[in-house]
């Protein structure tokens, strides 16, 4: 049976599958995984395919991960799958050897463990052998025996077929997902991991007040500073806007809530009373901005 876990519970010895259709949510989960690895003194390797290494480093930095120093001291490495994972040109066995080499190198360098995240979109490139993906996911299991490796394989639901996604789910003992408070075609509310807080997308009104209060209460309990990513929110009514402002007003003076949102959502927050709430910071994002 496959276990489902949130990204901040990923531990050494885990071989997990992250399937996604929301690119922003995927980057948030990835940032949380990298951040936690760096904080706990592990070595972290990111093999990327759909995003180039510099762009990925920029995305991590935008999500409260500080990749610069970690990259310079060698604790973090970001590289394309083609330059690293596929460099041996020896198929699945060669890819497993590359990963085994990274694990051995991390040990020699004094790191207690190795965290790896791999964008598996390399497998749908024209030159990729059809059985390389299947072979890699099957053969890699032996590397988890000593409990030092944590590997998350990322699968884009929009780019992989249903058969491959089913195989990925079957071969990974664990599935990584965001904690979701509400998931509906018109509204999604889930936990954001880096920076920590809550992400909302869709249309939020009085009917969802209880769910909103639940999500905010958990963030208030877990996070020193609360970050509300509302860039995907198209509409908010006065009731829910008031809940957000009221929650911010109850924070101690040493804590703050940062809300990133579109102009119309920010206007509604202002209308219900952001003035006079020093713990609340509202940042207007342009349509293409990412929080």
TrEMBL record:
Residues 198-291 form the STAS domain. It comes from the Bacteria. Pfam families: MEDS. InterPro entries: MEDS_domain (IPR025847), STAS_dom (IPR002645), STAS_dom_sf (IPR036513). PROSITE patterns: STAS (PS50801). This is STAS domain-containing protein.
